[in-house]
Amino acid sequence: MRIGRIIEAEPVPNSKKLLKLKIDLGGVVKQSVAGLGDQYKPEELKSKLVAVVTNLAPRKIFGLESEVMLLAAVDGDKVSILQPDKQPREGSKIT
Q1: What are phi and psi of 30, to 5 degrees?
Q2: Are 4 and 95 in contact (CB under 8 A)?
Q3: Which residue range is the domain that position 58 belongs to?
Q4: Separation of alpha carbons 61 and 31, rounded Å
Q5: What is the pLDDT of residues 21-46, one digit of tens each?
């Protein structure tokens, strides 16, 4: 797991809640497809530091490759992205 910064966020066409995210992991940019569109607007996510699982096999979601997964807390129908409380560098390991 690593810290990443969301550098791009856009809705996935023909999906009600999927967002395509580009995440900078310290010089390496990975793509994630996340079901956050009903909780966050794309512009709210840009520049946010997030916790990301990086050791998963890539998978196709709505025809798009998702290479990493954001960590989030789920409370009923509310989803909250996990974010560091300080400002670690992109690519920092989570232990």
Answers
A1: -120, 155
A2: no
A3: 2-81
A4: 11
A5: 999 999 999 999 999 999 999 999 99
